[in-house]
Amino acid sequence: MDVSMKLYIVVFLLQVLFLSRSISCELLNLRQSFDNLSVFPSDFLFGTASSAYQYEGGYLSDGKGLNNWDVYSHNPGNLIIDGSNGDIAVDHYHRYLEDVGLMHSLGVNSYRFSISWARILPKGRFGEINEAGIEFYNNLIDALLIKGIQPFVTLIHFDFPQELEDRYGSWLSPQSQEDFAYFADVCFKSFGDRVKYWATFNEPDYQVKFGYGTGIFPPSRCSRPFGNCTDGDSEKEPFVAAHNIILAHTAAVHIYRTKYQETQGGSIGIVLQCTWYEPISNSLADKLAAERAHAFTVNWFLEPIIFGRYPPEMQSILGSTLPEFTATEKQKMNKGVDFIGVNHYTSYYVRDCMFSVCEPGVGTSKTEGFWGQSSEKNGIPIGKPAELVWQNVYPQGLEKVLTYLKEKYHNIPMFITENGYGNMNKADSTTEELLHDVKRAEYIAAYLKALSTAIRKGANVKGYFAWSLLDNFEWNNGYTVQFGLYHVDHKTLTRTPKFSATWYRNFLAEHSKVKYQQQAKDANHSPFYY
Ligand code: BGC
């Protein structure tokens, strides 16, 4: 062995030593940190999540129509910080088989993805069905099922045919309800024989706040001081758009329940962003402010869909700005979900801004409900600050938000439809650094542990999806922010597992072992066992 070889071995051993020291024992010892993995039942869905515009690319392939994000990202006035777009994204449209292979190697049993509406209905209900688009999703669904991976399908994750914007102003018009119902019907008919989990919308509160409040998402409508747009009314339009979305959801659920559910046997829900809002003090004012924060985000959609009315907090602040539901609509909305999809990334402290003066910021205006958010109290962060400014690692927040939803909505089944850790893809980051994402693994481990506690305490949670399988197009942040368990080289589109992928794979393998041991035990006790 020559000297350089010896040197190489010494450096290698030092690296291994350094790596294993920088990774906490708890992270590596799954049995120890999850004292009871069987708290996740054997039919629990463990998966990864994605969305069409962030993943697929193929933006003009095989008859796809243009969607709102295609048009927005090509408009030089857009607010995508690296000037990028989702034209290619991570090319999932052409590489889905490879990606299904990656999921299979992780050991997941479910994949949450969304359908590109413009790929199957390039002009909404005003044109033909694009059979090539239907074929793509058929192929993806079949490839997943062959590998034992359940498709969990979101109908819309922020992208819709531009035709609907150009014709009637999309969500500002009640016509959008008809279009969405038609789209949903096509999806149930085409894929519902194999898809057993449907979510109508992804985070509609962000869709309307960013599209019509601050204007940072298409159709970029807003008014001052909320944003700088050429047209719009931030104090009215978000509520009109949300109203049409709630009724579009209701129409899709009605179609599913009356035409398909009995024969297809699936369930249908909606995905909401469920940040945890912790009152900054024990004062009644701050507690009510935290309740208003929930009312103007998650309950804005869930209360109408489940109870047939807007949250009382919204009604009393917004008065006639809030559209009304007719008696027939209310009747139709009754218990309008089989499950709640919970997207959870972070938590904030919340203070009252109704009786106290707050500096302008998220939540403080009347339109948003007079509450102010902050990541810290007396200079101490709510949880360890993560790499992205808006994210703090506070796993108790997941437990708290699940308990909150459990109590408020009578423990309707829930899925954690997104949870993940973001990092900056800085110009000077090396691939090695990006692959060594111990913090992401620690984050996922801590949140899974909090989830197991919530389940043990009775939260009816049926699945967990890590956001995301791959680094992808992160909306206004383009490719500068990453959430993937797999690194994607955007020049070659090569996928490489990060440390977090290995951690998730080990976790799932450990869970499978526990699951099989449990099943064997149950079989031993079964009256049919001889
Ligand atoms: C969205 C995803 C996004 C993720 C991370 C969620 O709010 O649904 O599309 O990539 O947050 O920012």
Reported for the largest beta sheet, the result is: 8 strands, parallel, barrel
Question: What average pLDDT do the residues reach?
Answer: 94
- Which regions contain 5 or more consecutive residues with pLDDT less than 50? none
- Distance, first to last CA: 61 Å
Overall geometric form: globular
CATH superfamily: Glycosidases
- Beta-strand proportion: 5-15%
Spatial extent as radius of gyration: 23 Å
Q: Give the helix tally.
A: 20
What is the CATH topology classification name?
TIM Barrel
CATH class: Alpha Beta
**Spatial strand order of the main sheet:** 1-2-3-4-5-7-14-16
Assign a percent range to the helix content: 40-55%
Q: Which structural class matches the secondary elements?
A: alpha/beta
Overall domain count: 1
**Distinct small molecules bound, one entry per kind:** beta-D-glucopyranose
Q: Tell me the number of strands.
A: 19
CATH architecture designation = Alpha-Beta Barrel
Can you walk me through this structure?
The protein has one domain (44-276, 290-345, 388-519): Glycosidases (TIM Barrel, Alpha-Beta Barrel). The protein is of the alpha/beta class. Strand 18 (486-488) and strand 19 form a beta hairpin. It has helices at residues 3-22, 25-28, 30-33, 52-55, 68-74, 92-106, 117-120, 131-146, 162-168, 175-191, 204-213, 237-264, 284-295, 298-307, 312-318, 327-333, 396-408, 431-435, 438-456, 499-525, and strands at 45-49, 110-114, 150-156, 197-202, 267-273, 276-279, 339-343, 347-352, 371-374, 376-377, 380-381, 384-385, 392-393, 414-418, 423-424, 461-466, 481-482, 486-488, 495-497. Helix 17 packs parallel to helix 19. It has an eight-stranded parallel barrel with strand order 1-2-3-4-5-7-14-16, surrounded by five helices. The chain has a three-stranded mixed β-sheet with strand order 6-8-9. The protein has 20 helices and 19 strands. It is globular. Bound molecules: beta-D-glucopyranose (BGC). Beta-D-glucopyranose is lined by residues 51, 54, 202-203, 206, 273, 343, 418, 467, 474, 483. Residues 51, 54, 202-203, 206, 273, 343, 418, 467, 474, 483 line the site of beta-D-glucopyranose. Keywords: Glycosidase, Hydrolase, Signal. It comes from Hibiscus trionum. This is Beta glucosidase 46.
